[in-house]
Amino acid sequence: MVIERPVFHAGAVGVSWKTAPAELRDRCLLPPERADALVERLRETGVREMVVLSTCNRVEVWTASEDPERTASTVLDVWSEVCGLEREWTDRAYVHHHEAAVEHIYRVAASVDSLVLGETQIPSQVRSAWERSRDLGQCGFFLGKLVQGALTASKRVRSQTRLGEGALSVAGAAVDLARKISGDIERLAVGIVGAGEMAELALSGFVRAGARKFVYANRTTENLRRFTTLHPGRVEGLEALDKVLAECDVVVAATGSPGFVIGHALVAQAMKGRRRPLFLLDIAAPRDIDPEVARCAGVFLYGIDDLEQVVDKNRLSRDGEAQLAESLLASEVERFRVWWRSLAVVPVLAQVRGNIHAVAQAEVDRFQRRVRQAASEEELRSVLQDFAQALANKFLHGPTVGARRAASEGRDLEIAAALRDLFLQGDHP
Amino acid sequence: MGDRSLILEILRWVPFATYAALAALHARRWFSSVPAEAIEYRAWRVAGVLVHGALVLALAWIQSRLPFGTMWEALSLATLVLAGSYLLLEHLAKSSALAAAFFSLASLGSLLSAANHEPPRWPVHVQSVLFAAHATCGVAGLALLVAAGLLAAAWLLQYRELRARRFGRISQRLPDLAALDRLFLAASIVGTATLVVGGSMGVFWMLSQGRELQTVLPKFSMVLFTVVWNLVLQALRRREDFSIRAAAWMGFLGILPASIVIWVGAGGY
Questions:
Q1: Residues of A in contact with B178 (CB under 8 A)
Q2: Is A28 a catalytic residue?
Q3: Predicted complex ipTM exceeds 0.85
């Protein structure tokens, strides 16, 4: 009898930011209705387990099938058809089979393969994709175990490395610094000076971080309407900068002015009789804030270079953490691999158990009459000894014949080792 | 050495071993890449403080007397309060970044306490409710003032790092300036109030014993100085025009008189 490897093999087919431009990724997107059509067609071709992951940076179909190579080809064909793509797009697609697919899925879920290393959205996107697939009955025990394993590994990476720590955008770094100086962003008053794109970028960062109180200042206050629609706030002209500085905990300066808008005297005046620190962020070019301001006690003045320095450090730190994450993932993938290999034994074990129970039941039936007829305890003991002997002979008949046959075929050492493993565990050879 | 003495000797070293282990565990976060959440050990910290508390009670029960027969024993109680205060501060600041510093100090206090153990010179009859309240509040207040000093030092360090635009490990690991400032002030206020209560109880106890204050004049003077120092600090801190940095320096320097009170106190009651 030939023992085959596990019936299920993992497969991953898709396009990502690494292999395809945004335009092609957009065309390959699989929103729910398209994903349903794809799944329906794949089912017709015999693919039993699948998960569709569709995000802005990657679109993938994960499968479990007996023939992953053929399944991958089918997936690409059906995908082209569902999205109305020419077959050439597949040049940009990647296909992973077997263990490579397992490793890929683990890396995706842990955001090691993401555009922004360690980004926090992908694990929840993978979870949603898996839950949707499970609820629709498309995800069986193999793919379910694989995705759950990948999510567990992702959690481990997140809790045991600093992969997701530190902002990777200038706006995020500004928020992080403000938090380090003044504490809870929700409680801070944020002043935005200027009405340009950089000012808007900073405003968006603080709004996203939960800031609620904003004061906008610009030479032409009409230009600030756009900001008040993003988040309500008080509007002031530049002549009221002293009030803005006195009131706010954070002031972002991003005007297009050729000279300094905020000078030393203005800040020194604002800091008089003030205990709270003042976080000044100058992201204008040329600069809006006189560097001398940094000498005022309680003032923290940063520029775009400082923010970029923070971002660079965070990026470097994440790169270093990625190596640690990879080694954690390797151990998690190995754990899945062990489980996967054990699958080959499961059906054989089930068959062996079934056979042994059938043999035991047949012997019980055969000895039932003799047990009933036993007249004395001694006679009953003799019947039970015969029963035990018969049962042992029956159990060992198959393995004995099989072992002799294997030995005669030249597999004597192999079968001897297997018998020792199975029947003589703990005994000396 | 009898069995009982041996057990007592071993028990005295347990707080030092516990705090030293906790300090070493938490020092890891400064040197390893493992994030703070992964090496939280919150349950371990709470367990360590509970173990110390249980030991103080056990020693009192075994020896049939209050656990401050000598100033070295009181020092052990002070480290217990310091560690307990730290747990409260950590809860309020939602940050365990200062665990290594606090537990290092607690292990130093426990080490001095265990290494300098000597038979109590105070007769049992001097121990009363007033004396117990005096010693407990006194050491608790001093421990909190030391904690306030440590928080002020952390604020100064974070301030320096951020002003110098060094966004490295120190800056990342320490809590934000606002949280450190709040905690430092809270520890200073509660510490001063507790020390005043402890000192007053001591005076009442001495009067009840018919003793004269001159016998503890150095300690009394230092306690008075510590209280005045902290009251001035808090009064200045309330003024809008007084810089937080100056207040932090005052808080940090406040460790000195608080430590002297502990040290002077070791000489007698």
A1: 181-184
A2: no
A3: no
